[in-house]
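U., I forgot to send this yesterday:
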Amino acid sequence: EYSEVNIRFHQTLIELSGNQALIQLAENLFPHMRMIRGATIGEDDRADRSIRDHMNIIRALEARDTERASPF
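Result:
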């Protein structure tokens, strides 16, 4: 269940970008991400780390800090 919410979180961010090329690319990637997430979510503290990472993204977006919101 967490994995599906996680993917929806990222889909929403991508949709909000309004970037059609990115949206199309993501639509092709998300089925693969579902498989990967399902395999890795049980690793040690993966769920806890993921929640922290997502909260950091949300805080960065609220602050309009694009540098901090980007994982790269």
